[in-house]
Amino acid sequence: MNVDSVHRSLRERQRQERQELILQAAEQLFTEKGYYDISLDEIAKRVGIGTATIYSHFSSKEDLMVAAIFERALQRVALHIQELAAIQQNAVEKLTASFQFLISDDFFLRRAQLYYSLGNSPEAQKALNSRQSSISENARIFSETLAEVIEQGKIAGEFRQDIATSTMLKAFISIVRAQSVKDRLAGNYEDVSPAELLQVYISGIAVQATTTQ
Predict the structure, then answer these.
(1) Helix 73-87 and helix 132-155: axis angle, to 10°?
(2) Distances (CA, A) of 162 to 137, 146, 155, 157, 171
(3) Confidence (pTM)
(4) Can you list the domains of the chain with their CATH numbers?
(5) Which of 90, 103, 133, 160 has the most C-beta neighbours closer than 10 Å?
(6) Which runs of consecutive H residues, i.e. helices, occur in 34-157?
(7) Tens-place pLDDT, residues 129-170
(8) Is residue 71 within 8 Å of 135, Cβ to Cβ?
(9) Residue 178: closest CA among 192, 160, 164
(10) CB 104 within 8 A of CB 44
Protein backbone atom coordinates (compact mmCIF):
# COMPACT_ATOMS: atom_id res chain seq x y z
CA MET A 1 0.00 0.00 0.00
CA ASN A 2 1.50 3.36 -1.03
CA VAL A 3 1.52 6.55 1.03
CA ASP A 4 -1.48 8.06 -0.80
CA SER A 5 -3.55 4.94 -0.12
CA VAL A 6 -2.62 5.04 3.57
CA HIS A 7 -3.64 8.68 3.81
CA ARG A 8 -6.95 8.02 2.04
CA SER A 9 -7.64 5.09 4.35
CA LEU A 10 -6.88 7.21 7.41
CA ARG A 11 -9.08 10.07 6.19
CA GLU A 12 -11.94 7.69 5.50
CA ARG A 13 -11.64 6.12 8.95
CA GLN A 14 -11.61 9.57 10.56
CA ARG A 15 -14.64 10.54 8.50
CA GLN A 16 -16.54 7.42 9.61
CA GLU A 17 -15.63 8.02 13.25
CA ARG A 18 -16.76 11.65 13.01
CA GLN A 19 -20.04 10.60 11.37
CA GLU A 20 -20.70 8.12 14.17
CA LEU A 21 -20.13 10.86 16.76
CA ILE A 22 -22.58 13.11 14.91
CA LEU A 23 -25.19 10.33 14.83
CA GLN A 24 -24.73 9.59 18.54
CA ALA A 25 -25.14 13.24 19.49
CA ALA A 26 -28.12 13.67 17.16
CA GLU A 27 -29.93 10.64 18.56
CA GLN A 28 -29.39 11.82 22.13
CA LEU A 29 -30.48 15.40 21.49
CA PHE A 30 -33.46 14.62 19.23
CA THR A 31 -34.64 12.11 21.84
CA GLU A 32 -34.19 14.52 24.74
CA LYS A 33 -35.65 17.66 23.17
CA GLY A 34 -37.57 16.67 20.06
CA TYR A 35 -37.11 17.77 16.48
CA TYR A 36 -38.03 21.47 16.63
CA ASP A 37 -36.08 22.38 19.77
CA ILE A 38 -32.74 21.18 18.42
CA SER A 39 -30.55 22.98 15.91
CA LEU A 40 -27.66 21.65 13.90
CA ASP A 41 -25.50 24.21 15.71
CA GLU A 42 -26.29 22.52 19.02
CA ILE A 43 -25.50 19.07 17.64
CA ALA A 44 -22.23 20.36 16.19
CA LYS A 45 -21.33 21.92 19.53
CA ARG A 46 -22.00 18.62 21.32
CA VAL A 47 -19.57 16.86 18.96
CA GLY A 48 -17.02 19.67 18.98
CA ILE A 49 -17.14 20.46 15.27
CA GLY A 50 -18.44 23.24 13.05
CA THR A 51 -21.96 23.15 11.66
CA ALA A 52 -20.57 23.10 8.13
CA THR A 53 -18.94 19.75 8.91
CA ILE A 54 -22.36 18.21 9.55
CA TYR A 55 -23.41 19.26 6.05
CA SER A 56 -20.44 17.34 4.66
CA HIS A 57 -22.09 14.18 6.05
CA PHE A 58 -25.82 14.93 5.88
CA SER A 59 -27.77 17.03 3.42
CA SER A 60 -30.19 18.56 5.94
CA LYS A 61 -31.47 18.45 9.50
CA GLU A 62 -34.20 16.06 8.33
CA ASP A 63 -31.64 13.77 6.72
CA LEU A 64 -29.64 13.66 9.95
CA MET A 65 -32.69 12.88 12.04
CA VAL A 66 -33.79 10.07 9.73
CA ALA A 67 -30.26 8.64 9.77
CA ALA A 68 -29.97 8.85 13.56
CA ILE A 69 -33.46 7.91 14.74
CA PHE A 70 -34.70 5.56 12.04
CA GLU A 71 -31.65 4.06 10.34
CA ARG A 72 -28.94 3.90 13.03
CA ALA A 73 -31.24 3.37 16.01
CA LEU A 74 -33.11 0.55 14.29
CA GLN A 75 -29.80 -1.10 13.41
CA ARG A 76 -28.70 -0.82 17.03
CA VAL A 77 -31.94 -2.32 18.31
CA ALA A 78 -31.88 -5.14 15.75
CA LEU A 79 -28.31 -6.08 16.67
CA HIS A 80 -29.08 -6.02 20.39
CA ILE A 81 -32.10 -8.27 19.91
CA GLN A 82 -29.85 -10.70 18.02
CA GLU A 83 -27.36 -10.65 20.91
CA LEU A 84 -30.10 -11.30 23.48
CA ALA A 85 -31.45 -14.18 21.40
CA ALA A 86 -27.99 -15.74 21.32
CA ILE A 87 -27.33 -15.37 25.05
CA GLN A 88 -30.58 -16.53 26.67
CA GLN A 89 -31.36 -20.21 27.08
CA ASN A 90 -34.98 -20.80 26.08
CA ALA A 91 -37.57 -18.97 24.02
CA VAL A 92 -39.45 -17.54 27.01
CA GLU A 93 -36.22 -16.08 28.41
CA LYS A 94 -35.32 -14.64 25.00
CA LEU A 95 -38.70 -12.94 24.57
CA THR A 96 -38.61 -11.67 28.15
CA ALA A 97 -35.14 -10.15 27.70
CA SER A 98 -36.18 -8.60 24.38
CA PHE A 99 -39.35 -7.15 25.92
CA GLN A 100 -37.46 -5.63 28.85
CA PHE A 101 -34.89 -4.07 26.53
CA LEU A 102 -37.44 -2.64 24.12
CA ILE A 103 -39.61 -0.98 26.78
CA SER A 104 -36.57 0.42 28.59
CA ASP A 105 -35.30 1.85 25.30
CA ASP A 106 -38.67 3.44 24.41
CA PHE A 107 -37.71 2.76 20.81
CA PHE A 108 -41.19 2.65 19.28
CA LEU A 109 -42.42 5.71 21.15
CA ARG A 110 -39.46 7.89 20.15
CA ARG A 111 -39.71 6.89 16.52
CA ALA A 112 -43.44 7.63 16.42
CA GLN A 113 -43.07 11.02 18.10
CA LEU A 114 -40.28 12.15 15.81
CA TYR A 115 -41.92 10.72 12.70
CA TYR A 116 -45.09 12.74 13.28
CA SER A 117 -43.08 15.85 14.11
CA LEU A 118 -41.71 15.75 10.55
CA GLY A 119 -45.21 16.07 9.14
CA ASN A 120 -45.31 16.20 5.35
CA SER A 121 -41.92 17.82 4.97
CA PRO A 122 -40.63 17.15 1.42
CA GLU A 123 -37.07 17.10 2.77
CA ALA A 124 -38.03 14.46 5.36
CA GLN A 125 -39.73 12.29 2.75
CA LYS A 126 -36.67 12.61 0.54
CA ALA A 127 -34.45 11.48 3.43
CA LEU A 128 -36.74 8.56 4.27
CA ASN A 129 -36.84 7.45 0.65
CA SER A 130 -33.06 7.64 0.26
CA ARG A 131 -32.50 5.49 3.36
CA GLN A 132 -35.50 3.17 2.96
CA SER A 133 -33.43 0.20 1.82
CA SER A 134 -31.25 0.23 4.94
CA ILE A 135 -34.22 0.90 7.24
CA SER A 136 -36.20 -1.96 5.71
CA GLU A 137 -33.24 -4.34 6.02
CA ASN A 138 -32.80 -3.59 9.72
CA ALA A 139 -36.54 -3.94 10.28
CA ARG A 140 -36.39 -7.33 8.57
CA ILE A 141 -33.53 -8.47 10.82
CA PHE A 142 -35.44 -7.29 13.89
CA SER A 143 -38.66 -9.09 12.92
CA GLU A 144 -36.99 -12.26 11.69
CA THR A 145 -34.91 -12.59 14.86
CA LEU A 146 -38.03 -12.46 17.02
CA ALA A 147 -39.88 -14.81 14.65
CA GLU A 148 -37.01 -17.30 14.91
CA VAL A 149 -37.22 -17.17 18.70
CA ILE A 150 -40.93 -17.96 18.51
CA GLU A 151 -40.27 -20.81 16.09
CA GLN A 152 -37.64 -22.19 18.47
CA GLY A 153 -40.24 -22.09 21.22
CA LYS A 154 -42.66 -24.06 19.08
CA ILE A 155 -40.06 -26.69 18.19
CA ALA A 156 -39.06 -27.03 21.86
CA GLY A 157 -42.69 -27.49 22.88
CA GLU A 158 -42.83 -24.19 24.79
CA PHE A 159 -45.28 -22.41 22.49
CA ARG A 160 -48.53 -23.47 20.89
CA GLN A 161 -48.56 -24.83 17.35
CA ASP A 162 -52.12 -23.70 16.61
CA ILE A 163 -51.25 -19.99 16.56
CA ALA A 164 -49.33 -18.66 13.55
CA THR A 165 -45.85 -17.35 14.28
CA SER A 166 -46.75 -14.11 12.49
CA THR A 167 -49.69 -13.62 14.85
CA MET A 168 -47.52 -14.20 17.92
CA LEU A 169 -44.96 -11.75 16.55
CA LYS A 170 -47.53 -9.03 15.86
CA ALA A 171 -49.01 -9.49 19.34
CA PHE A 172 -45.56 -9.22 20.93
CA ILE A 173 -44.72 -5.99 19.10
CA SER A 174 -48.18 -4.62 19.97
CA ILE A 175 -47.68 -5.06 23.71
CA VAL A 176 -44.24 -3.45 23.48
CA ARG A 177 -45.78 -0.45 21.73
CA ALA A 178 -48.66 -0.34 24.20
CA GLN A 179 -46.25 -0.39 27.14
CA SER A 180 -44.19 2.39 25.55
CA VAL A 181 -47.09 4.79 25.10
CA LYS A 182 -49.40 3.93 28.01
CA ASP A 183 -47.98 6.58 30.36
CA ARG A 184 -48.46 9.25 27.69
CA LEU A 185 -52.11 8.42 27.07
CA ALA A 186 -55.08 9.79 28.97
CA GLY A 187 -55.69 7.77 32.08
CA ASN A 188 -53.47 5.92 34.48
CA TYR A 189 -52.37 2.34 33.88
CA GLU A 190 -49.83 2.03 36.68
CA ASP A 191 -51.81 -0.84 38.18
CA VAL A 192 -50.70 -3.01 35.23
CA SER A 193 -46.96 -3.63 35.43
CA PRO A 194 -44.81 -4.55 32.42
CA ALA A 195 -44.16 -7.95 33.99
CA GLU A 196 -47.89 -8.64 34.27
CA LEU A 197 -48.51 -7.55 30.69
CA LEU A 198 -45.76 -9.85 29.44
CA GLN A 199 -47.07 -12.72 31.56
CA VAL A 200 -50.51 -12.40 29.97
CA TYR A 201 -48.88 -12.64 26.54
CA ILE A 202 -46.66 -15.61 27.46
CA SER A 203 -49.61 -17.43 29.04
CA GLY A 204 -51.57 -16.99 25.84
CA ILE A 205 -48.94 -18.51 23.56
CA ALA A 206 -47.50 -21.11 25.93
CA VAL A 207 -48.32 -24.81 25.80
CA GLN A 208 -50.39 -25.46 28.89
CA ALA A 209 -49.27 -28.30 31.11
CA THR A 210 -51.80 -31.10 31.43
CA THR A 211 -52.55 -32.86 34.66
CA THR A 212 -53.45 -36.49 35.10
CA GLN A 213 -56.08 -37.62 37.52
Answers:
(1) 20
(2) 29, 18, 13, 12, 15
(3) 0.79
(4) 1-57 (1.10.10.60), 59-205 (1.10.357)
(5) 103
(6) 40-47, 51-55, 61-65, 73-87, 91-105, 107-118, 122-130, 132-155
(7) 999 999 999 999 999 999 999 999 999 999 999 999 999 999
(8) yes
(9) 192
(10) no
